[in-house]
Write a structure and sequence with these properties.
Creatine Amidinohydrolase, six-stranded mixed sheet, alpha+beta, three-stranded antiparallel sheet, Creatine Amidinohydrolase, Chain A, domain 1, binds glycine, 451 residues, single chain, binds manganese (II) ion
């Protein structure tokens, strides 16, 4: 288990059960992910489901958390693989139900092979089924069968849940606000990723291939105990930086190129997500520096909106204004064509060079769960929600200049993004990725350090 003891997971289960009871009570079913075939008899590295992990801390495949929260009882149940010496010789340790129950603090644990025989009785007379349909098709079929089995007992006076609630809607709101153990874990993830970015800066040389810098990142992640990247690392040199989801990382880096690296590790299941952009030869050209300072100023403007009470979109609006001013001042946007800053914002002219949002929730998933608007499921009024202490967001403005006739040539093929991970606190924010070199002088100085 990670830094969290089973008490943290149990507390989350109890919080969820209280929410369930407030809706009349019932049974929640939360499965982990499935192992997926990569090719022939190889599987992809297994990554547990984030909701399941949030409630259990359990990382084996083939497992389901079931919470029974009726008016007069609360029971936390884990279904998992049985111990199996033959499999353990080949593939490693398995807890088995008895040890898993004790280690992860459940009231009961059963072999996953018994789930079909046990679930119908748990669902009998349950008020509501708390389950997320259409996420695990194969479990959907099982759940349907369990409900059929309960309905078959109708003449004996037993009924199936009349209501189904998407349990993820309850869990999303819980996951959106991080507790102290989650924050400590995310800080560790961000610190490792920051060190990896600094390492890549120190290692960079013209003539290298993008994958050589990717290898530096992976090396730093793993030597610090991070289990994997939180998402596919982007190492994009020169014009590749203008491809937003570039991931092939195969190109040779030319002297004079900027390198955009968007990479973060996953540490104990929590993501970090950091982007830095630096000149491979260690020195920004005047044109690169001009655009870099604009993106940095845009990020500062957005950071000022990372505080409780601000609306989620405030940072984006602040960044767009600074970016648009910069685009007009540098001639990326032509005043005679697009008009004033306000005009260029209203007409979305800035989108030629800034076509994505300025951030997202961060947590167990790199694009973490949680609603972005109030009343998201209601038709009329849907203002962006307000930030609150314990939320973690990324702030990641950029400028991407594809060659075009109406664009000064000195800026062609420059792609810049600067991304940090911000914890909202009661009076502002803490930048979890604060140790990653960011200003022009910090980056140039880091790149002068020995490898
Ligand atoms: N690395 C994914 C993102 O920045 O959203
Ligand atoms: Mn991001
Ligand atoms: Mn990113």
């Amino acid at each position: 288990m990670s830094q969290a003891s089973h008490l943290h997971y149990s507390a989350r289960r109890q919080q969820l059960m209280s929410l369930m009871q407030a809706q009349g009570g019932g049974v929640a079913i939360i499965p982990t992910a499935r192992e997926l075939t990569r090719n022939n008899d190889n599987t992809f590295p297994f990554r547990h489901d984030s909701y399941f992990y949030y409630l259990s801390g359990f990382t084996e495949p083939e497992a389901v958390v079931v919470l029974v929260a009726n008016s007069n009882e609360q029971t936390e149940i884990l279904f998992c693989r049985e111990k199996n010496i033959e499999h353990e010789i080949w593939d490693g340790f398995r807890y088995g139900p008895a040890a898993a129950q004790a280690e992860f603090g459940f009231d009961a644990a059963y072999p996953i092979a018994d789930i079909n025989s046990i679930m119908p009785s748990l669902l009998s007379d349950a008020h509501t089924l708390f389950y997320s349909n259409a996420t695990e098709p194969h479990l959907d079929n099982q759940v349907q069968q369990w409900l059929q089995d309960v309905r078959a007992k109708n003449r004996a006076g037993i009924s199936a849940p009349a209501i189904t609630v998407d349990v993820r809607c309850l869990l999303d709101e819980m996951r959106l606000v991080k507790d102290s153990v989650e924050i400590a874990t995310m800080q560790r993830a961000a610190s490792i990723s920051g060190a990896a970015h600094a390492r890549a800066m120190r290692a960079a040389r013209p003539g290298q291939f993008e994958y050589e810098l990717e290898a530096e990142l992976l090396h730093e992640f793993r030597r610090n105990g991070a289990q994997s990247p939180a998402y596919g690392s982007i190492v994009a040199a020169g014009a590749n930086a203008c491809v937003l989801h570039y991931q092939s990382n195969q190109a040779q880096i030319q002297d004079g190129d900027l390198v955009l690296i968007d990479a973060g590790c996953e540490f104990d299941s929590y993501a970090s997500d950091i982007t830095r952009t630096f000149p491979v030869n260690g020195k920004f050209t005047p044109a690169q520096k001009t655009l870099y300072e604009i993106v940095l100023a845009a990020q500062s403007a957005a950071l000022a909106c990372a505080k409780p009470g601000a609306r989620y979109m405030d940072g984006h609006h602040a960044a767009v204004r600074v970016l648009t001013e910069g685009m007009l001042n540098t001639g990326l946007l032509n005043k005679h064509e697009v008009g004033s800053v306000d005009d260029a914002i209203a007409s979305l002219a800035y989108r030629q060079f800034y076509m994505h949002g300025t951030g997202h929730w961060l947590g167990l998933d790199v694009h973490d769960v949680g609603l972005y608007r109030e009343n998201q499921n209601i038709a009329e009024e849907k203002p962006y929600r307000r930030l609150a202490a314990g939320m973690v967001i990324t702030i990641e403005p950029g400028i991407y200049v594809r060659p075009a006739e109406n664009v000064p040539q000195e800026f062609w093929n420059i792609g810049i993004r600067i991304e940090d991970d911000m914890l909202i606190t009661s009076d502002g924010h803490i930048n979890l990725s604060r140790d990653t070199p960011k200003t022009v002088s910090e980056i140039e100085s880091e790149m002068r350090q020995p490898q």
